TrEMBL record:
Pfam families: LUD_dom. InterPro entries: FTHF_cligase-like_sf (IPR024185), LUD_dom (IPR003741), NagB/RpiA_transferase-like (IPR037171). This is Lactate utilization protein C. Transmembrane segments: none annotated. Residues 110-206 form the LUD domain. The lineage of its organism: Bacteria, Bacillati, Actinomycetota, Actinomycetes, Pseudonocardiales. It comes from the Bacteria.
Amino acid sequence: MSDAARATVLARVRSALSGATRTPLDSVPRDYATERPAADVVDLFCDRVADYRATVERVPSDGLTGAIAAALRGVSARRVVVPDGLPQVWWDVLGAEFELVGGDPDVAELDRVDAVVTTAVVGIASTGTIVLDHGPGQGRRAATLVPDVHVCVVEEARIADDVPAALRRLDPTRPLTFISGPSATSDIELDRVEGVHGPRTLHVLVPPNAG
């Protein structure tokens, strides 16, 4: 752009702004995008999770442990990481069929497991993202990155409409992991490769509650 053209553009901007009232940023209304009804939020979350090539199921609370076992059975899992803080009934049901690894397994031990089962602190409907803060029932970050399969339980009440709504529920001092679908990347020919930076398979179960 020449100096003359730039001067013309700036002059027109100054002319358009002349007489305009400067509004403080904190006075701008920001409630124009109200959240969707709860049922729509859950439906949207499931749709967006599926868009990422993850498996997502809405299940009743009394069928949750059976759904977890079925998800693990579907990938032929044998050794499964179950972080501290998961409901005891999950341990009881899964322990009858799978070899459970609790506590805080190191990376070498994680290399020898087939899957991990966790809860999540927040789900984000608009992006289909799952957020872990690695509190009870979620394990440390390596436990959800090394195993090839991640089965994650996201209660309906934990699903937020969008990213700002989700951030209001999170503690910024916690270590946060955002997961959008199975781990995937593309090679130089743009062929999709899954399981490079984390689990190849993500199976999300959405019950009304996980108690």
